[in-house]
Amino acid sequence: MTTITLPVKAKDHPHMRPLNMLRDLSKVADLIELCFSNTMDNDGQRYVNDMRKAGGDEGFLRWANYVAETTSMPLMGYVWEEDNRIVGNASLIPFRDKGKRVHLIANVAVHPDHRRRGIARALTERTMQHAREKNTTALWLHVRDDNPGAVKLYADLGFHEITRRSAWIATPDSTLPALDSDIHIVPRHADFWTQQQDWLRRVYPDVIAWYHHWGFHSLRPGFWAWLSNLFTDSEIAQWAAIQNGELAATLSSAPRGTRLASLFLAAAGESTVREAEAVKSLLVHARRALRHHSSLSLDFPGGELTDAIASAGFKLRRTLIWMRADATQLSLSRIKT
């Protein structure tokens, strides 16, 4: 079993200090937006705006002082400050995974003018040390697959890849022509649920459910799921792709806010022509049917059925590598400052 060595320093670097939520949140939001603006989607922009709003809310900040170690907002972490400017940041966000404490290292960002000086590594090491002091059971982070420098940095620090997730987005279009195919799109029948549930568990793995809060109870057939959706005003739509009388894939739509919809695609992952055609047919059908939404989002395993998803008119926003370091493998070694 590999041991992850964490450096213990006599004191932090003079430019590094803990995040002060009373004065830093807005500045950190500015830094995150600067560093990731070219890849930031609507969720990312909303996240940054929420940070700015929280940073200007004195009532929230007073409350946050008491819950920084339990809330999933980025209220803990470290910043790198030079000439009274925050030029580097690493957030540490607590979560619970089956009752155990885990931490996500997020928002690792360094101003473009200050890169290649080891700032990201120093900030990441310090957040790892902080998480260990909080008796975490595991450390997590995610990094874009097109950032090999960051991937290597985290691997050198002891993180190993767990999974890859791709984010896709599309615009509904009721004028799209129906596909000429022997795939038939029908409403999801209750008899399909057992197979659909097995596929959902494969596509949306439990190992990262602590972050995504995936829960598919609302997709179950039956009176209680219908009643729950009625009371929560959730307009769940579900379809199945049938070929030669056999179920090939399913697709579910769940609302996110008033204009957005999240899609949950379930398939066996066999990468066959039949499966690809079924997936394309389902996604085109969703774009035709969900015309009252402004956009559709799909989270799916990285590298899987990419041609089929793209041919249905979905655009790839990013692919994230999820990496984990087990706290049981953390050890300490003193290094010179």
Would you write up a description of this structure?
It is built from 10 helices and 14 strands. It is an alpha+beta fold. The chain folds into 2 domains: 4-164 and 322-334, Aminopeptidase (3-Layer(aba) Sandwich); 172-293, Aminopeptidase, CATH 3.40.630. The strands form 2 sheets. Strands 2-3-4-5-6-13-7-12-11-10-9-8 form a 12-stranded mixed β-sheet, sandwiched between helices. Strands 1-14 form a two-stranded parallel ribbon. Strand 4 and strand 5 (100-110) form a beta hairpin. It is elongated. The model is unreliable at 6-10 and 332-337 (pLDDT under 50).
Would you kindly provide a brief summary of this structure?
The protein has 337 residues and is α+β, with helices and mostly antiparallel strands. It contains 10 helices and 14 strands. Helix 4 links the parallel strand 5 and strand 6 (138-144).
